[in-house]
Amino acid sequence: MSFKKKLFSLLIVCAIACCGVAQAQLYRVSLLTCDPGDELYMAFGHSAIRVLDPIGGTDYVFNYGTFNFNTPNFYGKFAAGKLDYMLSVSSYADFIATYNAEKRSVREQVLDLSIEQQKYMTEFLQVNYMPERRYYRYDFFFDNCATRIRDAMDLVLGDKLVWHDEQREEEEKTFRNLIDEYVLQMPWADLGIDVALGAVIDRDANPQEEQFLPDYMEQAFARAEIQGDGPTRPLVKESSVILDFPRANMSMNPLNPYWMFWLIAVVFTVITFFGFKKKKLFIGFDIALFGILGILGIVVMLLWFATVHSATQWNWNILWAFPGHLVLAIALMKKSLKPWVKKYLLAALILADAAVVFWILGWQSFHPSLIPILLVLILRTNYLYYNIEKYKPVVA
User: Whole-model pTM above 0.70?
Assistant: First the structure.
């Protein structure tokens, strides 16, 4: 073979190889995982999909975690669980600039998808970004920025995607345990979440359900494999750190519910002791206590019965934060009592005791800071039940 023919053959081979490489890199699809931030809405981290088109020169990030503040009745819809989130698209540079400004780490996992899978994923994201399809009804546990990406992967790869959840090192945790890992150092936020969410989150989350948290989904992607589509291969072919900031060592605010509620318990114990010695009720403290618990009970009831939030149902915090306590507070302000007040005090005592039983039996986990509040409620309902008629007139 002449030199010219050899050179021509070599050029042909190189051209074919180059076309193959270009075809294999039609799109570069990767999972971006972002660390938690300092604010509550940032506390659980974030996930997004990056699609790099080296041929077209575009680099976009598809983000399922955005919503429109200009939505009519924004806060009402948010409280009722009827706020729609949406898929948004931004440039990769803008996305990274935002997290760089917030000093939050970002990690990238490049997915080892075939040409067809790359195209399918990209087309899926583009179709879902259409105005009539980009909105979805957000659910923190079951339909959020992370689970949408996981579900897209399940759709694109089908039964070729094997998660290998049996390789997990962690024991199964409840949804409440998983949340606590991120808000433990935000005690007031942790308390609010525990009071607002019901017993439905006190069951163990299976490995797939754990992926509502971006960190857990990142770990699941690292374990997963693609099988039955050529050689078995890991789902993630390359991992890198794009932004690296140390996670802040948050210290608990000294004005936290733990010591504040114990302080309240000490105050109520002292006034009960002196009330017993001096034959007085000091009922103004009870009016404040039952008034606050009654208002809180109305919130718990509305979250349970007047919203579509799936996680606020069967909330047994209503046993101690009961709406009727507000009516009791109003009744205690009167100069004379109605006969039903004493009966209600007994019922409130029973409800508080039931809350303790529910907690011990594991039917719902209450926030640990509530122990002194429950003790106060049991103490004062018991004291008032046996003494209120002695020091306050009763009228029919």
Answer: yes
Domain of 79 in residue numbering reads as 26-168+207-243
Residue 122 makes CB contacts below 8 A (sequence gap 6+) with: 27, 29, 51
- Token pair listed for 102: 């917030």
Please indicate, yes or no, whether residues 218 and 308 belong to a single structural domain of this protein: no
Residue-wise DSSP of 61-124: EEEEEE--TTSTTHHHHHHHT-PEEEEEEEEHHHHHHHHHHTT--EEEEEE---HHHHHHHHHH
Q: Are 262 and 372 in contact (CB under 8 A)?
A: yes
Q: Which of 155, 79, 90 is nearest to 312 (CA)?
A: 79
| Total residue length of the chain | 396
My answer on whether 324 and 227 are in the same domain is: no
| Residues 117, 36 share a domain | yes
CA distance 40 to 37: 8
Residues 232 and 317 grouped into a single domain = no
One domain for residues 236 and 363: no
Residues 257-315: tens digit of each pLDDT: 999 999 999 999 999 999 999 999 999 999 999 999 999 999 999 999 998 888 999 99
